[in-house]
Write a structure and sequence with these properties.
Layout: E1 2-12, H1 18-29, E2 32-37, E3 43-50, H2 51-63, E4 69-78, E5 87-90
């Protein structure tokens, strides 16, 4: 079953390879969407994929790369669109 989520991650998540880490995990799990830095120092992730892949992807987002420190992850459940083709890193 296709699922969609918006994650907003706070902590030490910019300038530590967080976006690249999320990108690689998305590719591994077949997740579509994007990851981007927010001006307030948080990172936003929009993701869509099957339920099992989304579960594994969320675990990775909550952990982050070794140089990061994830303090909080806000999760919004969204209706899936099924229109995503790939995952990308945005500004």
């Amino acid at each position: 079953m296709l699922q969609a989520r918006r994650f907003v991650v706070s902590g030490r998540v910019q300038a530590v390879g967080f976006r690249a880490f999320v990108y690689e995990r998305a590719l591994q799990e077949g997740i579509t969407g994007f990851v981007r830095n927010l001006r307030d120092g948080r990172v936003e992730v929009m993701a869509e994929g099957d339920s099992e892949a989304m579960q594994l992807f969320e675990i990775a987002v909550r952990r982050g790369p070794a140089a990061a420190r994830v303090d909080e992850v806000e999760v919004d459940v969204l209706p899936p669109t099924g229109r995503g083709v790939h995952f990308m890193i945005r500004g």
